[in-house]
Each structure stands twice: as structure tokens, then as C-alpha cells.
Design goal:
This protein is an alpha+beta fold. The chain has 11 helices and 14 strands. The strands form 5 sheets. It has a 4-stranded antiparallel sheet with strand order 1-4-14-9. The protein has a 4-stranded mixed sheet with strand order 12-11-10-13.
């Protein structure tokens, strides 16, 4: 009898709640935050559409790895230029500073120093509430920028206090002790300069292998969570190793860190480092949006091979180059890209090595240097027959077991063939070259923006 009364009361309360709601009992759906599309800074919207991927004419090199095929890609944002030295340095400095802050906080905790005395205690952990943390905060607590397991997980870094890099401003001997671990030993320094030990600049991140999870439903969630740790400083020695019997020391010494090259494309970055940069950029953007109580944005990532070629064509079908073609000069006799023209006259296009990332005219999608300057990593594994097996909608072939990763677009040291939008090349995922850089993309929220709709 009591159970019947309980059920009756429940039904009455439910009906009363329904009568008092604003939906008048109708199905109106869950109302969330209003979504406002926002074009990321420095990116352009590439409308989705179909195009003929691969060689439109004869494959003069006879490689036969890019047969023509009609495919369709969805809309996405893409960086207007290659990622520059200045932009990548922001990533490097963030990792460096996070590592320093973590070491300072750990030392302060171990010796019992707290804020207020002006010393290392100012960098002590901010105790976090484990039950009320954002995903970004949880990520930070779990990773600590490459230090691995520290025993201090569950504590939050203090980023409100500025770091000191001038030795005259070091606040106490404990701060000196930590900073000393971040530089190369004195015996490895020269010309009176101490150099950062860039092997300490490590970035940790984790991601879910959704494709692996989808293909094997018996796997547990933890089985498809992949953790990565990677040294993120560019390999500047690539300028020396890539060219035998060649004097490239100035590029090795200055290219990445000097402000004179800040707007030039970053090179010496492996495919794995480029992937790590994408993860960091996503965290940086979503951290800001969380503070402003806005929706998260989609992850930044490397483009698929089909996305890259579609974007490079700029809406032109069956063209050899981003500007059309088949010539590499315009009607005024000027070269349209930075590459190795004529019979190896590097200076003929007014550049010996790379040029600023926004040099030369953009294509019809407002993308610069989709041909020449530096080749670009894409999120694809190289297989001569991959075009035969890939899907015709949003095609992507990226096998974890295949470490040969595709690079597209040609570079400052390549002949015109590799500048063609359909030409394919590859390098190994852990390799860094003086002529390979990258740019990122982000999925567009929605499907209504298509090239067809614009016509």
C-alpha cells in the first residue's frame, strides 16, 4: 500500500513540474550555450567541396603514386602561413617556463618555503581542489611538462609570479639551484655564454586513439589513451647535416632564435614535434575560452593529405600549381614561389634559403606559400598505393605502424616538380630537416559552408 502511495505522489509531482515548466509539455530539446563561430587568428576558412585529387596530366617523374580521383572534404580553418619561428618559440618558452615553475614549486614544498618571504616560496604550488578542476587544470596536474611522475600530482602551478632570467635578479640560492639545472654545465659553455639545456624542454600530452577504439569495441578506455613525451626544441643542426661540404653555420646559429628570422617558417621540426605543437595550441586556446565561460573549440591538428591538396589548389581544378600553371613565372617574368629554379640558380627567385612566411601572392583561399619555401608535414603515412584504398569522403590514410609521413608542397631547395600541388614526398616521423615545416588546421563547426554554395 505504501509503495502505491509513493508512486502516486511521484506521478503527481512529475505532472506538476511539467505544468510549471516553460516548454508547456512540448519537446524543445536541451538548451545549451549559444554557439558563435569564431575564425581563429591567422587562419582562413577553407569551404568544403569536391575536387580531383592527384595528377591531372602525365606524371613526368614516373612515380605513379598519385592517380587522379574525385574526393570530397568538409570545411576547415587553415593557417594562412606556415608556422613561424616566432610562433613556435612561444611554444618552446611555455614548455621551458612550465618546467622551471614545476622545479621551483617542488623545491619550495620540500624545504617548507611559502609565499611572503620574496624567495623561492613565491613559486610554491597553489593547492587545487581535485573535485572542482577544469580539464585543462587536470591536464596540467597530470603532466608537468615533461618531468614525468613527480609525486606532486594534484597540485597547481603558480603562474601569477614572473620568472627571473637575469642572474642579478635571482631572489635566493634556491632559485639559483633550480636555474642552474636548466643550463648546460659551465665546461660546455664558450664565449662567456651559458646555453639552455634544450633536452630539458619536454612536453607531455595524452590523446584518445578514436580509430583504434572504433575498430575494437572490446578495448577498455584506458587501452586507447595514448601518452606521449617529446623534446620540442627544433633540431638546428639540420642546417649542417642536410648538406655535405656546405657552409651553413649562420643558419644553424641564428635562424630559430634571432628576431631577424621571427617571421620565417620554423624548420628542423619533426612530424612528432609538429603534432605536439598542435596539442599545446589547443590547450592554450581552450584555457582562455574556459576562463571566459565559452564553448571549447575543436582541436588544432595537422591537415590530412586530401585537405592539404584541396587547400593548395585554392578552388582551381586540374591546375599544376596553387596559382594555376603550368608555368612558375607570372606575366612579368617573376617567379611565383621560392624554390630551386633554372639549373640550380637558388638566387633567381630572390632568395637563397627560406623567405618570410607571407612572401609571394596567396592563392584564392588566401593561403601563402602552399608551393615552395618549406615542405609541410601532413597527417598521413606514405604508401604509393594509398589513393587506391582511401575513402572518397574526407580521405585519410595514417597508419601508426608506418613511420614514413607525407610532406607536401616542395621547398626552397626543390625543383619545380615537387612544387606541384599533386606531388607527394615523405620523411620519417622522427626526422627533422632544414626544409620541412608545417601549418595547422581546425575543423569547422557545421557543414553549411561549401565551395558549391558560394558559386
Amino acid at each position: 500500500m505504501n509503495m502505491k502511495k509513493f508512486l502516486l505522489i511521484t506521478v503527481v509531482l512529475t505532472l506538476l513540474a511539467s505544468c510549471g515548466s516553460s516548454d508547456k509539455g512540448q519537446l524543445v530539446g536541451v538548451k545549451g550555450k549559444k554557439w558563435h563561430p569564431e575564425k581563429p587568428y591567422g587562419m582562413t576558412l577553407v569551404p568544403g567541396g569536391a575536387f580531383i585529387m592527384g595528377k591531372a596530366g602525365d606524371d613526368l617523374a614516373g612515380i605513379q603514386d598519385a592517380p587522379s580521383k574525385t574526393v570530397t572534404v568538409r570545411a576547415f580553418y587553415m593557417d594562412e602561413t606556415e608556422i613561424t619561428n616566432s610562433e613556435y618559440r612561444e611554444f618552446v618558452e611555455w614548455v621551458r617556463d612550465s618546467t622551471i615553475r614545476t622545479k621551483l614549486a617542488i623545491l619550495a614544498d620540500e624545504i617548507g618555503e611559502v609565499p611572503g618571504n620574496g624567495g623561492v616560496g613565491e613559486f610554491a604550488f597553489k593547492d587545487a581542489d581535485p573535485d572542482n578542476m577544469t580539464p585543462y587544470e587536470q591536464y596540467m596536474l597530470d603532466n608537468y611538462s615533461g618531468l614525468g611522475e613527480t609525486g606532486f600530482e594534484g597540485r597547481k602551478l603558480n603562474r601569477d609570479v614572473e620568472l627571473f632570467f637575469d642572474t642579478a635578479e635571482y631572489p635566493d640560492e634556491y632559485y639559483v639551484e633550480v636555474m642552474d639545472t636548466m643550463y648546460l654545465p659551465i665546461e660546455e659553455s664558450y664565449n662567456g655564454q651559458r646555453t639552455w639545456d634544450v633536452t630539458k624542454f619536454k612536453f607531455q600530452y595524452s590523446y584518445m586513439d578514436i580509430e583504434k577504439a572504433a575498430k575494437n569495441k572490446n578495448l577498455r578506455r584506458k587501452d586507447v589513451i595514448i601518452k606521449e613525451e617529446i623534446e620540442i626544441y627544433p633540431d638546428t643542426t639540420a642546417w649542417i647535416r642536410d648538406f655535405a661540404y656546405s657552409y651553413n653555420e649562420p643558419m644553424h646559429n641564428d635562424y630559430f632564435w634571432h628576431d631577424a628570422y621571427g617571421d620565417y617558417p620554423v624548420v628542423g621540426v619533426s612530424w612528432k614535434q609538429a603534432k605536439a605543437f598542435c596539442q599545446w595550441r589547443t590547450l592554450k586556446h581552450n584555457s582562455y575560452r574556459k576562463e571566459k565561460k565559452r564553448h571549447y573549440v575543436n582541436s588544432y591538428r595537422l591537415p590530412s593529405e586530401a585537405e592539404w591538396e584541396y587547400a593548395a589548389r585554392g578552388g582551381l581544378q586540374a591546375a599544376d600549381f596553387p596559382w594555376g600553371g603550368p608555368y612558375t613565372k607570372n606575366d612579368r617574368g617573376c617567379f611565383m614561389a621560392n624554390f630551386k629554379p633554372l639549373r640550380g640558380d637558388y638566387a633567381a627567385d630572390q632568395a637563397l634559403y627560406t623567405v618570410e612566411a607571407d612572401t609571394f601572392d596567396p592563392n584564392d583561399f588566401n593561403l601563402y606559400n602552399m608551393a615552395g619555401n618549406v615542405s609541410e608535414w601532413v597527417n598521413a603515412s606514405y604508401d604509393p598505393g594509398s589513393y587506391e584504398l582511401m575513402s572518397t569522403i574526407n580521405p585519410s590514410v595514417n597508419q601508426a605502424s608506418n613511420q614514413r609521413k607525407v610532406v607536401r608542397g616542395g621547398s626552397w631547395k626543390d625543383v619545380a616538380y615537387f612544387l606541384q600541388v599533386s606531388s607527394r614526398d615523405y620523411e620519417y616521423a622522427d626526422s627533422a630537416r632544414s626544409y620541412i615545416g608545417f601549418r595547422t588546421v581546425q575543423d569547422y563547426m557545421g557543414t553549411e559552408v561549401t565551395a558549391n554554395a558560394r558559386r
